[in-house]
Amino acid sequence: MRERGVEIIVVDGGSSDRTRELSLPYINHWIESDSTGRALQMNRGAEVAKAEVLWFLHADTQVPEESDQTILQALQQRLWGRFNVCLSGDEPLLRMVERMMNLRSCWSGIATGDQGIFLSRSLFVEIGGFPEIPLMEDIAISRELRKRGRPLCIRQRLVTSSRRWEESGIIRTILLMWWLRFGYWAGISPQRLARMYR
Question: Which residues does 124 contact at the CB level (< 8 Å), separation at least 6?
Fold first, then answer.
């Protein structure tokens, strides 16, 4: 993708492993963020980016080789979009989880960070970027974007790590995610929800 002019930016929230060393040969910019909050990190990366199209990915996501081209074509049809997601593990229950995530997202017009939200820089600036809250920043920005139009749901899949699901238990993680989303919908502050999540 870099050979096609894609600019790759990594924003690190204080990792203590070899992330920087491993990343540098493959990226355009390395940014160290004072905050571990994803919203702040993504906004910081967007400030540095020079391109007119922004694509936000979590570090544990693997992307299809031509997905940059897919995004450019998608933005000719809609203002923003996201990909389907596939969880990396082999547990059969994960197939049901990812299927439900993708269906719910397409039906509701709400994307998660795992699904690689993309949009134009001008639209990102217009809506004020990611709300700088400690949790649910993906839900919050999706709600704002949905006011301008529904996302294009790309069926091509990003592969995201299922480590959290496997370590915490799949059913337990499903229930936690449902509870957090319900709490956010019911008006519980993102700060309180973040404490529950941790």
Answer: 46, 54
What does the pLDDT look like over 166-183, one tens digit per residue?
888 888 888 888 888 888
Residue 87 CA to its chain's centroid (Å): 14
The vertex-103 CA angle with 198 and 53, nearest 5°, equals 75
Give residue 54's pLDDT.
98
Give the CATH number of the domain where residue 6 resides. 3.90.550.10
Residue span of the structural domain in which 10 resides: 2-197
* Chain centroid, CA 142 distance in Å: 11
Residue 41 near residue 61 (C-beta atoms within 8 A): no
- CA separation, residue 188 to residues 131, 135, 151, 193 (Å): 16, 11, 26, 7
* Amino acid identity, position 45: G
pLDDT tens-digit series, residues 80-103 = 999 999 999 999 999 999 999 999
State pTM to two decimals.
Answer: 0.91
